[in-house]
Amino acid sequence: MNEKELVQLNNKKREQLTKENRKYYEEMLVYIRLTYSKAYLETEEILSELIDHLLEAQQEGKTAEDVFGNNPKQYADDIIGELPNMVTKERLKMFFMAIFYFFAVSTIFSGIIEIFMSGSLVKGYYIGSEAIRTLVSIPVALLIVYVSLQYLRWACFKNINKIKEFFILWLWGTLSVGIFVVIFLLLPDVGPFMDIHIFVVFGIGIILFLAGHFMRKSM
Description:
Layout: H1 3-14, H2 19-33, H3 40-59, H4 64-68, H5 72-82, H6 88-118, E1 122-126, H7 127-155, H8 162-186, E2 193-197, H9 198-218
Helix pairs in contact: 1-3, 2-3, 2-5, 6-9, 7-8
Organism: Evansella alkalicola
Transmembrane segments: 95-116, 136-154, 166-187, 193-215
Pfam families: DUF1129
């Protein structure tokens, strides 16, 4: 059974859990899955074993806390410590998948903004400036993703007020977008100028998205 099949099976099994047990288990599931450095298949296999164990205990009237203890984070950390690391090939695929998806979205979004802001179907690019933006955007995007994942893992097993959590996520999202806006505004125009039709921009975005999708399917 591959990762996708295990995920689908896990989703179905979770429907059999009580509300309290599901909340407990899903916190562990998110926390473990967000440990992106571990092998996918082995991660999903251990999550499948955990839910099977919990379902059996639930039939006996036990709760998730009875099974896994009152410190789910420590229990999850112990499990993560036993999981094998992702091989270099898989890490590279994940890296390129993220890069392709990021530039696919940013390329298509820039085309849409151009249409609404100027009403033109032609967008001008300074080749040198775009190359610099690309080189700068990659580490910045990876840093933003890393910080976002760390926050999501930190938020697991904590009863954070929904309004407070919304405000934190909104603030971080605004800051992330603002960083890229600053990068694009501060960089000077460098290199030869080229006009590109918006449909070509969209086409490039679609190609990048398909490349990211191919990487994801191959993992």
